[in-house]
Amino acid sequence: MVADYIREKLKDGPEQELVVGPLVERLVSNGWKIEQIVYGKNEWKVPKTPSEASKREKGTSFDYFPVDIAVFESPETCGDYRHLLFLIECKQPNIDVGLQQLETYLSLEPHVKLGIWANNPDISSDTLFVYKDAKGLSFPKKKTVKDIPLIGAPISPTSVNLTFNDLVIPTKDTLYKTFSKLLDKVVAQDGNVTRREEQLDQLCNIILLKLDSDKQGKIDPKNEVYFRVFATESGTGDYIKEKFSTFTDIYPDIFITQSDQEIRFDNATIHDIVEKISKFNFIDIGADTVSIAFQVLRSAALKQEEGQYFTPKQVIQAAMKLMDLNLNDIIIDPACGTGGFLIQALIELKELYPNQEREISRWAQLHLHGIDKDAIGIKLTKAIMQILGDGSAHCVRGDSVLTHTWESKYPHLLTNSFKNGRFTKVFTNPPFGAPLKIKYKDAKKSGLSITEYVDTGKDIELGLAMFNRCYDLLKDKGRLCIVLPETYFFSPSYKFVRDWVKDRLKPICVANVPMDAFQGFCRAKTNLYIFEKIDKKKTNVNLESDLVTFLNPQTCGIYKNGSDRFIVNSAGERTKIIDNELLRLAIKYQNGQNDEMFTVPLADTYKADVLVPQYYDYSLQRPFDELKLTHKFEQISIEELINKGIITVSGGHGSPSNDMRNGNIPYVKVSDIRNMRINVNPTNLVSIELAKRFWKTDNGKSNLCAWDLISPSRASSNIGEFAILLPGEEQIVLTKEVFVIRVHENDLGYSPFYLLWALSLTETRKQWQRVTLMQTNREDVGQRYKEILIPQPISKEWAETVSAPFRNYFTSIATAKKEFVLSTGNDKFTYIASVSAFEE
């Protein structure tokens, strides 16, 4: 034992035993080797005078002052006064005597840089530090024993030994920038590691070492953390490599191969990385640290093409609340990435049982499971879980979807640990996106039942294949929490998904995931879907009494760049309270409070064939209902207006390619429909011959009429905002993604101006928010626009009165345009066909 060896070399006396010995032990714990320290019986001798120093240089005997502890640059230079770094004096009876002695010693030793007086080995006890440079002695600085230099640290008045209490929790924005800069440096300067995958792996190794250092520091927050820089690049590099070697020995099942067990960056790179991140507290942001690092370091070229978007902690926390974990749960994430869901599950259980950490760690070893194809992701998952309290035993590399490959590629997955029907809870955010597919024959070989719902031979989207696997892994009445694009649950092109789901999974709860959560990486609109597996006899399904709960939060605590989002008060001031509606509503759901959410009978969701929170957010309908009560009118839907023959609805013409836009007929896109008008973009004009091909009419003219109402129907946030077509504006080509509503002659009070008034009401516009959903990453209203309600005219006269401002405004514009064209002959401010239209 080092302590025994140290005590053997001490001189007799209480000062040696109670102060000198413990201080030498502290130096060793700070990284200094016992072979570079002189103390005790073999005490260091400081010449009493310059002439005595000359004798020392000649190797003859000399008069001296004995020093309690002397520390040298290295074991090889120990005993050479030219390499003496600092002295520690433990003199009694008081600090003044100690200071005088130190000043004497420092004046007589030409190379020493620091003298320390310490008379108590406790880390928080007061000490005096006297530094020496070319200008002489500095004023004594009052410090503590914990500030005694670490090995390799610069010896200067400004140097500070970091403790855990000194570490700061970085913002997400800071982490993104830090990791991005580090990656740039690695790419630019490190010649040892040049492949991107290896660079990522090596950076992650250092981050894991930093997490371990933080973990140890948190246990003893007043002591130094071991993750730190040295005065030189070589010192830092050698030290970190040595520490990492010890770290890999502690976790042999994580660092399996020889390449896993080495830091291969050059010393300059290691020094830069450690210098940049040593000041941060990583352990208290846990999985977020690694997921952010992974997002940045993976880079778009490597992972975003694979549809792998790491789940923000805010979404994961909400998922845990919605699923209500307990000790009986057996949990798996079959696309675990860097382990966000599994790590949070462990944290949740520790919070539920705060005084049972050891038991929860043992529980995690048996109850938490993860699979991922990415070797680095699995390594990070296992490492973080072990650092935070374990649960890593069943986190393995493999392809969780293509089970027919397990025997040849992943035999370790063939154990009962990963068998179908075993798990009570499944959490996952699978890779998704139309380009990511598995071949039909592979899906069939792996027994995916969703193949029965698609055309034979048609490839299966990876997200849907993973959805299928989650179902297979669940036991009857087990629950699945999955992040999926909402387009799967309303789009006609994905009706087969809903058909597959109906006989297998019962929706329990659906929570809107605000776009900010993933927008930094993709624009696909997603939701958190909670399903319960239907048992074979369907005893857990009742279409009328079973309810589906929908949560429609608008914030999740972060902006699209990952930075924290704070609540802004009524005075327009940003508070310090995180604006996370998603988590707040999830907690309310967990507590059985449903006052801010919407419950819908299961039968109604099947009838509507929609499983999207926004669609069931009836708060968007309430303003119209209140308006109806206040003004005592009846309502009528667009669908009823169509069925009664009062209106017809058609679409636009099409979209000419950019190189065809070189004529004089306006081509109108959805962005040109604003402020109730069609706004012509002079850079978007097509030839008359091309326009005729889009119009497809016998007379070679547009099929549009004056006073038609036009609104975007897709790919616009302005869906439901209508423009009116004036006389003379008919000869245009409309993009296909619009509605064209034409009002037919009737005696009920419906006119184009009344309809425009009714559709422009704030209370009517609010309804469009409910029925406009995100088809992958584009707004889409489908046939749901027919559900929009407007006031039914109380009488024809009433309708004419309320819409009179609209009629007067737009007819006056039409008249002014006609007079302008006829009086000046200048049609540049109107459409090319304006004059002929009025003459007709």
Automatic annotation (TrEMBL):
GO terms of molecular function: site-specific DNA-methyltransferase (adenine-specific) activity
EC number per UniProt: 2.1.1.72
Domain DNA methylase adenine-specific, residue spans: 302-552
Swiss-Prot/TrEMBL keywords: DNA-binding, Methyltransferase, Restriction system, Transferase
BP term (GO), one: methylation
Broad class of enzyme this protein falls into: transferase
SUPFAM superfamilies for this protein: DNA methylase specificity domain, S-adenosyl-L-methionine-dependent methyltransferases
Gene3D superfamilies: DNA methylase specificity domains, Vaccinia Virus protein VP39
Protein name: Site-specific DNA-methyltransferase (Adenine-specific)
Species for this entry: Ruminococcus bicirculans
